[in-house]
Design a protein that fits this description.
This protein is an all-alpha fold. It has 3 helices and no strands. It starts with a helix and ends with a helix. The relative contact order is 0.16.
């Protein structure tokens, strides 16, 4: 459960940072061979490598629900 919650938190934070960098750099953030464009692509792919973020959220929700119901 800890691994899933860490994966969700880290991927969300990284995506937020990368998205903000792209916004700050305007159209140059996603065009050409900028480091921001490369990082944005890698972080987006990173959200899928160890299972989609949504799958981790569902896993956490099921675990929490099970814990609540079994008291």
């Amino acid at each position: 459960m800890v691994e899933s919650s860490v994966m969700v938190a880290v991927s969300k934070a990284l995506m937020g940072i990368a998205d903000r960098c792209v916004q700050v750099m305007d159209d140059t953030g996603v065009s050409g061979d900028t480091i921001v464009e490369q990082v944005f692509r890698e972080i987006r792919a990173c959200r899928i490598y160890d299972g989609p973020t949504e799958a981790h959220k569902w896993s956490l929700a099921k675990k929490i629900r099970r814990d609540i119901l079994t008291g």
